[in-house]
Amino acid sequence: MITGSIVALVTPMDSSGDVLWEELDQLVEFHIAQGTDAIVAVGTTGESATLEFDEHCEIVQRIVAVSAGRIPVIAGTGANSTKEAIDLTSAAKYLGVDACLLVTPYYNKQTQEGLYQHFKLIAEAVDVPQILYNVSGRTACDMLPQTVERLAMLTNIIGIKEATGDVERGVEVMKRCEAVNPNFMVYSGDDPTAIELILRGAKGNISVTANVAPATMSKACAAALAGDADKARLLDGQIKPLHSALFVESNPIPVKWALHQMGMISAGIRLPLTPLSEPCRGPLSTTLADASLL
Questions:
Q1: How far is C-alpha 28 from the geometric centre of its chain's CA atoms?
Q2: What are phi and psi of 157, to 5 degrees?
């Protein structure tokens, strides 16, 4: 079972957008040392939308190799093409990941039945643990709790990353899915509300903030999982300003700039994303300094 603080890892790049493999290795080692519980490779924060198929697989392979079984690796393998999602998920299974994270198809504007059939076909095609990913703010597609409940009945769909930021919505998904699959896991995908959702029964947080404050995020999630609400909220309070500051522009623009300021990665990001705009840099630097990260 994968629980706790799960970092949605950035993909380090140079100024031309090429992947920097040594920096990627260093990030994996950093997270293992800091107590991060698992890594999501090439998710939204890893710029999956602009990676070519071979690049995508190579990054997953590298993270699996460097982590060497010390920490679970979840590969982002979603796509708005069902066939492409199957191909990515099959490749990730072959590369040895512990699970796959599959975002709802974007742009297509499919129905709830279309969502169900999409994820059902992937689950049937590839025998690997699969985590659904609902992030309607980015995909313009909202997978309703009723649809998640249907999918929770499929053996290798083990959970969902619920990134709506609505705690009550997450609780509804938990209640519905528990009735059909007691082992189904709900993860937060929204840093500001993650601790509250874990205190209500979620199993962890797939986190952007964990990129820059992995130790504190890990401890906060652990406390919430243990039911220690006071400690969890205290720890979360220490990094709460980061939850907002890292979204002053579209993710992963701010978090990559923050990691660059911290000396962790180079400044590269791939078009159509651009480096953090000048007016946002001062406030983010102040937030990082206040959190003792610079």
A1: 15
A2: -90, 105
If one counts the domains in the chain, the total is 1
Q: Going by C-beta distance under 8 Å and a sequence separation of 6 or more, which residues neighbour residue 172?
A: 145
Q: Which of 133, 187, 203, 256 is catalytic?
A: 133
**CATH code of residue 129:** 3.20.20.70
Q: What share of the chain is helix, strand, coil (3-state, %, to 5)?
A: 50, 15, 35
Its domain, for residue 172, covers: 4-239
Sign of the Cα torsion 261, 25, 57, 203 reads: negative
In a domain, 150, yes or no: yes
Q: Show the CA angle centred on residue 244, arms to residues 289 and 159, nearest 5°.
A: 120
187 counts as catalytic:
no
Is 288 within a domain? no
Given the residues 83, 106, 120, 161, select the one marked as catalytic.
Answer: 161
Is residue 133 part of the annotated active site? The answer reads: yes
pTM, two decimal places: 0.97
pLDDT tens, per residue, the chain with 294 residues: 899 999 999 999 999 999 999 999 999 999 999 999 999 999 999 999 999 999 999 999 999 999 999 999 999 999 999 999 999 999 999 999 999 999 999 999 999 999 999 999 999 999 999 999 999 999 999 999 999 999 999 999 999 999 999 999 999 999 999 999 999 999 999 999 999 999 999 999 999 999 999 999 999 999 999 999 999 999 999 999 999 999 999 999 999 999 999 999 999 999 999 999 999 999 999 999 999 998
Give the helix/strand (H/E) hosting 24: helix 21-34
